[in-house]
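Lecture 7 notes: from sequence to structure.

We start with a single chain of 252 residues. Read the sequence below before looking at the structure.
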Amino acid sequence: MSIEALILDVDGTLADTEEAHRIAFNRVFEQHRLGWCWSRAEYRQLLEIAGGKERLAAYIDSLPVGPAQRQRLLGRVPELHADKTRCYGEVVGDGGVALRDGVERLLNEAVAEGCRLAIASTTTAANIHALLGATLGPRGLDLFAVIACGDQVRAKKPSPDIYRLALDTLGLPPEQALAVEDSAHGLRAATAAGLWTLVTPTFWTQGGDFRAAGLVLPRLGGPDQPLPGEPGGVLRRRAWLGFDELVRIARG
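Now the structure, written as tokens:
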């Protein structure tokens, strides 16, 4: 079967957005005078929980507070998350996040080969739109045939629901699509949906269990950002991953 679609995660995959998310959370905590501040190490641990609202709730559950105060704080989660989404949009809009090396090149190569692009992410539509607009300009949203967001499914990653939604909307079986992820949760979601998956970890996801991945690379690379040891390691054609070679590797 031919490869008809490339389905990509957003946070950590298209761009290393997690620091921008952490900054946005901390700004909101300060604005609301909560006295919380998530360090990089703490936020890295919190990323084991998929979804910003879920992350907030888990953090509140871990606080040494009484039941009444805990319930009051949990009741504020929707408000805090909405404010955080707004702050994140401001950080991204100010140019605080760039696409990872090779991402725009790979997207363009896939489109040139007639492959459709899709997104399968646990983040909100507002966050996705902000990132695509800030990094790819007016064509950002138009590049993607399908944008599947976390709020559209009952269970977030590592559940395969978001990938199944993307495939159903594309009208494709998993054999005709490839997934690109950066985390162990994302990999589990994609492979459970039957997708061959490329993983490109970041600082936030390094050390995860990626044994089920079809291919693991530190990044996609490019003519100006060659991958160490390539070609000759896992790549044959050049020192960066092109769409043609991605399809070749996926087909075995």
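The chain has a mean pLDDT of 95. Keep this in mind for problem set 3.
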